[in-house]
Amino acid sequence: MLKKCASRIYMVLIFAFLYLPIIVLIALSFNDSRSKVKWGGFTLRWYTGCFQDEKIMTAFVTTLQVTFLSAIISTLIGTLAALGIAAMKKRHQTIYLGATNIPLLNADIVTGISMMLLFVKFIDLGFVTVLLAHITFSIPYVILNVLPKMKQTNRSTYEAALDLGATPLYAFYKVTWPEIRPGVFSGFMMAVTMSLDDFSITYFTKGAGVNTLSTMLYTELRKGIKPELYALSTILFFAVLLILLAGNVYPGKKRVAAK
Amino acid sequence: MRKFKQQFLAGPYLIWIIGFILLPLIMILYYAFTNGDGSFTLSYITAIADETNRKAMGLSLRLGIICTIVCLVLSYPLAMILNNMKIKNQGLVVFIFMLPMWMNFMLRILAWKLLLSKNGVINSILTGFGLSRINIINTPTAVVLGMVYDFLPFMLLPIYNSMTRIRKDWIEAARDLGAGNVTIFLKIILPLTVSGIISGIVMVFVPSLTSFAISQVLGGGHVLLIGNVIEQDFMQGMQWNAGSGLSFVLMIFVIASMTIVNIFDKEGEGTSIC
Q1: What CATH number is given to the structural domain containing B225?
Q2: Alpha carbon A4 to chain centroid distance?
Q3: Chain A contact for B234, CB < 8 A?
Q4: DSSP secondary structure code for residue B18 in this structure
């Protein structure tokens, strides 16, 4: 009994450690006062302010564009790669998977810098370079989600379809696709969350002028905190919650899921 | 013949690997080992021994190790408690503990800056009760706190996953054979969760060793980690060769730490490089 009680208390303590900062942010986003501790009444003005703030909105739109473009492109390249890798000899598979692990295991700061060093040789840093960088670090998550599904598929079913006169594309659509679809979907969701969360790699590849939410927040944080940012945090927190509940992709993020 | 064709589907990815994974790494090596005029030098690698760099590297290692230990000490009991819960919705409870890590990385740091700053939430509450303020913002303590908050789920999840794989009958069998709780923990639970601990350590240690944003925001420029030195070399000083040299050294540290922990991971189930 005592043990049970102690473990409950321990759980509550960790829970408080994880959620108190978020609850404070949410509470302050409705607080009609610039003070951080006095409750000045309920207000939505930080929310309207947040939507009128040009800096925040531009960063928000850029983030959405980068996230969805990079997720779609990396899902495409990653799924094709998984299909190809599954058909390779063991030795080639090892080489491909080794290369896939590099962006997963390398420090973000090194990945970001290395890409910046390459990009500046050819184009100006900006939206395109951020997009290329996000695609690069998202592809591994797609591959690691699709490849296990691909290995579970039975190759003879696909070959049977071909023998029965199906074109390769039709056989893929009817036989292989239904089996790998969940993996492709969770890979896409993982690419979305990785891209939304990234700071370091974006920071080094963005150049001047372009900002995602993460890099915009970083610049703002060094100056001080505006209450509009609390509103933004609250909106984002619930948006992520909705996406997760809809996508049912929990639990497992980042390298945790990469295994 | 068909098999041969299917391999080509990985073609775009091969181009991507060469163009955006290997070439960038070669660029870092090139800048790390050459002078401004393109001649070979080792001075940017040995620059790690300079006083500022050595101190920053030492501090990074120290904070990284502290953060990893704190995360491990906090996560392990929690993983055990979560795993032993006898309720239907265990998945939901685990989800609740994982949810904060989906919140934007910068926003989580923002929340801590808000709590810890001089006139921040914690200090206002403390003075409200007539207690003395705590001044940990802009110190290494604040940075470690931010790191622990950011990386705790990376430790919790692999340990919890490895625990769920332990079958209940093994523990019951041990109990039937007369083993006490301590023996069960030392002989069954701990050895079977080693791989989870190992991946947790890698996943927490690498980002905490190499982070620069947390120390910048919560350390207010007073806590200089190796990541901050590299960032300044690139973004302020335009000293690309010096920054690349330090990045290369940092990469060596990352690889070394992974190799060291992988030695302990006999089953090779942890974060393997291949």
Answers
A1: 1.10.3720.10
A2: 37
A3: yes
A4: I
Architecture of domain A62-212: Orthogonal Bundle (1.10)
What part of B 95-124 touches A (C-beta under 8 Å)?
Answer: 95-115, 119-121, 124
Q: Is residue B30 part of a domain?
A: no
Q: Which of these, B17, B174, B134, lies nearest to A84 by C-alpha position? A: B17
- Rounded to the nearest 5°, which phi and psi values hold at B40? -65, 135
Number of helical (H) and strand (E) elements in chain A, helices listed first: 13, 0
**What is the interface pTM, i.e. ipTM, of the complex?**
0.85
- Asked whether residue B205 is assigned to any structural domain, the reply reads yes
Pick from A135, A133, A140: nearest CA to A205: A133
Distance (Å, whole) CA B249 – CA A65: 35
Here the tokens at position B24 are 């960038």
What burial letters (b/e) apply to A135-172, b meaning 16+ CB within 10 Å? bbbbbbbbbbbbbebbeebeeeebeebeeeebeeeebb
Q: What's the total number of domains in chain B?
A: 1
Helices in A53-176 by DSSP H: which ranges? 54-86, 90-105, 108-122, 127-152, 155-163, 168-171
- The distance of A38 to chain B (nearest Cα, Å) reads 9
CA distance A148 to A144: 7
Residue B63 lies in a domain: yes
Pair B44, A118: CB distance under 8 Å:
no
To the nearest whole Å, the CA of A192 is away from the closest chain B CA by 11
| Residue A250, CB-side half-sphere exposure with 13 Å CA sphere | 21
Beta bridge mates, A42: A31
Instruction: Check CB contact of B16 with chain A, cutoff 8 Å.
Output: yes
| Run means of pLDDT, 10 residues per run, chain B, 274 residues | 71 93 93 88 88 93 96 94 80 81 82 84 83 85 94 91 88 88 89 89 92 91 92 88 93 86 59 35
To probe the interface with A, which of B3, B99, B164, B239 has the most A CB atoms within 10 Å? B99
Of B7, B110, B210, the CB nearest to A84: B7
Its pTM stands at 0.87
Distance between CA A210 and CA A86 in Å, rounded?
38
Q: What is the mean pLDDT of residues A6-10?
A: 90
Q: What is the pLDDT of residues B75-117, one digit of tens each?
A: 999 999 988 887 777 778 888 888 887 788 888 888 888 888 8
Is B157 touching A (CB cutoff 8 A)?
Answer: yes
Rounded Cα distance, A215 and A210, in Å: 9
In a domain, B158, yes or no: yes
**Closest CA of chain A from B259, distance in Å:** 12
pLDDT of residue B266: 55
Inter-chain CB proximity A118 and B23 less than 8 Å: yes
pLDDT digits (tens, 9 = 90+) for A73-106: 999 999 999 999 988 888 988 899 888 988 888 8
Q: How many CB pairs under 8 A join A and B?
A: 250
Nearest CA of chain A to the CA of B83: how many Å?
12
Q: State which residues form the domain around B72.
A: 51-264
Chain A nearest-CA residue for B159: A256
